[in-house]
Task: structure prediction
Amino acid sequence: MTYICRLCSTNPPRTFSSKSSLSFHENNIHPNNKIIPHSRCLTSPSLYDICQFKNSFIMQLKARLQFHRSEPRAKTLKIEFFSEGLFIILFYNKSTFQYFPAQRKYICKFEGTQGYEQLGILFGNKDWGSKRRRTGTCAYVLMQNAQQTYNVTFIWKERIYKDSDTQLRCGSMRFEFNVDVRDFVEGNIENLILLLFSIYLVAFFLSIQSLFYKLIILNFNLEYPEKLVKKFDNATKSIPAILC
Result:
């Protein structure tokens, strides 16, 4: 069986004796290939399908983000029976998009903080790769930390399903990523400042109130005996006048 390179423009086209030799040729002669020879045969997904996928992907991804504390760990999210046309529409214009005809496989990678932001724009959700608790703990798709930069990879590959005499060709998409868990105080800094300020004001007013009560009590203890003496003196001075 011969395998034809559909990327070469030679006439006649170059042929190979095995799929592995064709794949080796494509990787060396046609690196970073974006040519899709059969693109005219593909159907474009509707806007509804695209929107549904974006929402579904984020929901499925966040379900995989667990709050188990450990070292960053690799995970995979797989979606079966995924449209080839949908994958192309989503990722074709990205600089890292590649197509491998011999393997019937597409790859698109995103790297670092910039890649995370690009995916936020693509999915229309800047928090697409994170899940938070009210305590501030966050499980998230790790793409950058102090030590190194990570990437995420979207892969579409055709699979062949066979059942007796029936053969079905369809694709599946795989999303490869790393997960990490951290406590983010920075996200609640404004609320923390307001809380501390409120506590300070309450403590301040309580101290002023306490001081005010102490002054009243102290003033009462000092003045009350003097008022009694003055009243007694005035009363004794008026006795002779009355007797006279």
Q: What stands out?
A: The longest strand covers residues 166-183. The longest helix spans residues 189-243.
